[in-house]
UniProtKB/TrEMBL annotation:
Residues 75-335 form the AB hydrolase-1 domain. It comes from the Bacteria. InterPro entries: AB_hydrolase_1, AB_hydrolase_fold, PHA/PHB_synthase, PHA_synth_III_C. Pathway: Biopolymer metabolism; poly-(R)-3-hydroxybutanoate biosynthesis. Signal peptide: none annotated. NCBIfam families: PHA_synth_III_C. This is Poly(3-hydroxyalkanoate) polymerase subunit PhaC.
Length: 377
């Protein structure tokens, strides 16, 4: 005769098992937390070679620099969050991969705006800071052009710059870069179209980082808050997991404010009026015409990006004047494109190959040949 089960007994047994499992996890977590944790980010050495106002230029020198790679790569991060995402930790660093390929990297550090920066515009960033930085790098390396890589909002600025100063740019790489803002894909674009910028900027002067972080969390609260911390609770006995988790949290909440005038112009000209892709945006009295971008361009974006969805990125290639223009869609999200183990194997190596193939007098084949002839290759 089959034994009858008692639902209440089964429920209590399940709860007890779950409680025991949770207690064991907590004990393992305490063991991890009682020992020293390495949660340092951005450990790659650099030198600050140029500085104006709050903006700094970091130079990362490759110890494997080869003649095939004469032009350095200038990386322009967004004003939101920090460029340290490119160097989260050894073995999980886009910057490290670039340097290992033999290419010097310059990185823009936008710093932390204060109230006195509230009137700084996109024009000031593109025609002012960025143009001075480009001229410095060109002069320091005795070159007439360089390779420019922009990330997210920094990619939008880089696109504007390449359209205004095409004679200074050898290649342009845009990554998770919004250029078409006429899309309802994702909550962010819908929210920004209805945002009353004057109320925000009128209250604070600059756009506070804490307000932006709250907004980003509300875009997907189940995944970005509940799932994330539940996953942490399940893995807090894993030292490597905890260290990586804390590194990411450090980066997420190391968020500068955005200068008020820049934030206003970015929302009104881009999100609300979509002027950039229409070739109707003006900076410093000059029209930003994307057809002036005739240098090789690689446009990379994430298939699962909830902040800058594919629709916000995939019109750029058809809008530029370059005949050497390529889209690359990677099956990942906005941040995962830089830090996930799968993307690490595709993202930076693809950029290295693409740049090498377009390096005058050298290229990837020359670099690979040189690497094979080295004693430690």
């Amino acid at each position: 005769m089959e034994r009858m089960t008692n639902p209440m007994v089964d429920a209590v047994t399940t709860l007890m098992a779950y409680g025991t499992e949770s207690l064991n996890r907590a004990r393992q977590g305490m063991e991890v937390f009682e020992n020293d944790l390495n949660t340092t980010i951005a450990e790659t050495p650099f030198e600050v070679v140029f500085e104006v106002d709050r903006v700094k230029l970091k130079h990362y020198r490759s110890e494997k620099k080869r003649q095939a790679f004469q032009r350095p790569l200038l990386v322009v991060y967004a004003l939101i969050n920090r460029e340290t995402m490119m160097d989260l930790q050894p073995g999980r660093s886009v910057l490290e991969t670039f340097l290992d390929s033999g290419r010097d990297v310059y990185m823009v550090d936008w710093g932390y705006p204060t109230r006195k920066d509230q009137h700084i515009t996109i024009d000031d960033h593109v025609n002012g800071y960025l143009n001075k930085i480009v001229d410095f790098v060109l002069k320091e390396n005795e070159l007439s052009t360089l390779n420019l890589m922009g990330i997210c909002m920094g990619g939008t600025f880089s696109t504007m710059y390449a359209a205004l100063y095409p004679e200074k740019i050898n290649t342009l790489i845009t990554t998770v870069t919004p250029t078409n803002f006429d899309t309802s894909e994702g909550f962010l674009h819908s929210w920004m179209k209805e945002l009353d910028v004057d109320k925000l900027i009128g209250s604070w002067g600059n756009m506070p980082a804490d307000v932006m972080n709250l907004g980003f969390l509300l875009l997907n609260p189940a995944r970005l808050m509940l799932d994330k911390y539940n996953n942490f609770a399940r893995n807090m006995g894993d030292k490597d997991f905890v260290e990586n988790f804390v590194r990411m949290e450090k980066w997420i909440f190391d968020s500068p404010d955005v200068p008020g005038a820049t934030f206003r112009q970015f929302i009104e000209d881009c999100y609300q009026n979509n002027l950039l892709i229409k070739n109707k945006m003006t900076l410093g009295g000059r029209t930003v015409d994307l057809r002036n971008i005739t240098m090789p361009i690689l446009n990379i974006y994430g298939k699962k990006d909830h902040l800058v969805p594919p629709e916000a990125c995939n019109r750029l290639i058809s809008a530029v004047g370059s005949r050497d223009a390529r889209d690359l869609c990677i099956d990942t999200g906005h941040i995962g494109i830089y830090v996930s183990s799968r993307s690490q194997k595709q993202f930076a190596p693809e950029i290295i190959k693409w740049l090498g193939d377009r390096e005058p007098g050298g290229g990837l084949s020359a670099w690979a040949s040189a690497a094979q002839n080295e004693p430690d290759a």
